[in-house]
Amino acid sequence: MYQLPDLPFDKKVFEPIITEEGFDYHHGKHHNAYVNNLNRLIQDTHWSELPLEKIIVKSLEEQNIGLFNNAAQHFNHSFYWNCLSEKGGGLPKGHIAQLIDSGFGSFENFKQQFSQAAVQLFGSGWAWLVLNKEDKLDIASLKDANTPITNGQTPILTLDVWEHAYYIDHRNQRPRFVEGFWEMVNWDFANQNLKGHE
User: Fold this and answer.
1) Burial of residue 76, with CB atoms counted within 10 A of its CB: 0-12 exposed, 13-18 middle, 19 or more buried
2) Residue 160, annotated ligand binder?
3) In this model, does residue 91 exceed pLDDT 90?
4) What Pfam families does UniProt report for this protein, alphabetically (predicted)?
């Protein structure tokens, strides 16, 4: 059975971009609900024997949408929490910086394109930085619970732009929330996700 992961930081460190109350709802209620739903759906079934990423891929193949949504949202959120760091923000360093420069021309170009993808995604979903099958960076705007692992891509970073990610702290001002992401983004985590792709 799956468990809600602890946040890898104190809930107060990102105020006012994300407040403690924001995390109480986003992590403590929304993410927790996906975990509880997932456990209920797989209990006493063959799904309970599979790792999370296999559940995501196979449930989508079999069009088991309820299972897919909850499994993918558990994966997406668990990944997202690690994309934030109290020591984050600033300019990227290391391999991720090199790939951003070669793929987008500059960090500012990348930041503008990623922010635009996050702000303009209609409805609910996720803005992802992924490594494609050619080991080049791409920006992917994915609706609802969709996740890069079903497209054969390697997730590097993500930003949750479902309303529940920002409404408590920013109401309908998604652009303000997206701008705050650059003060929290965890470049060390991005570099960890690139290991094996040097």
Assistant:
1) buried
2) yes
3) yes
4) Sod_Fe_C, Sod_Fe_N
